[in-house]
Amino acid sequence: xxxxxxxxxxxxxxxxxxxxxxxxxxxxxxxxxxxxxxxxxxxxxxxxxxxxxxxxxxxxxxxxxxxxxxxxxxxxxxxxxxxxxxxxxxxxxxxxxxxxxxxxxxxxxxxxxxxxxxxxxxxxxxxxxxxxxxxxxxxxxxxxxxxxxxxxxxxxxxxxxxxxxxxxxxxxxxxxxxxxxxxxxxxxxxxxxxxxxxxxxxxxxxxxxxx
Length: 211
Fold this sequence. Notes:
30% strand; metal-binding; hydrolase; RibonucZ/Hydroxyglut_hydro; MBL_Glyoxalase_II
């Protein structure tokens, strides 16, 4: 299984494409530039199986409908943010996009409690990691030692908590309870910036010291 990082949309949000040897893939957080993403998928001859969202802020969902309609695949999101997809006041586009509102059609699969999720040959552990937003999720792929963490944990930083539904204490608890409990060699794929590792953030992240 191989992963690709593709920064997309107005805030260059990291979209991740996780593929297997048959070129089937999962798409995480397609934040914008739908035509560009579609062109890449077609040029690589990938077969997308699903779109999964770490959360529903506008910069993570902008290309959802373009890809979903092109491939007729389901969209997964946590129940706490299912209404955010169609509401610019919740997904933030009303406040940040200067008149360009982001609306996405309803999700096909609603995730609730933490669970294991199998899509084709992909096995994922779905972890609830609220704090940046109330429905934030992280997706751990044990077989490949990676976790798609959205805007929960970054290289040398953590997610902001000053947006609606954010909670700083809850965010720190999510990071320590779930992300930092993973094996230290786990690669963390964040929503913005470069990848890091559990070990690196345990040792060097100044926001996590003294928690």
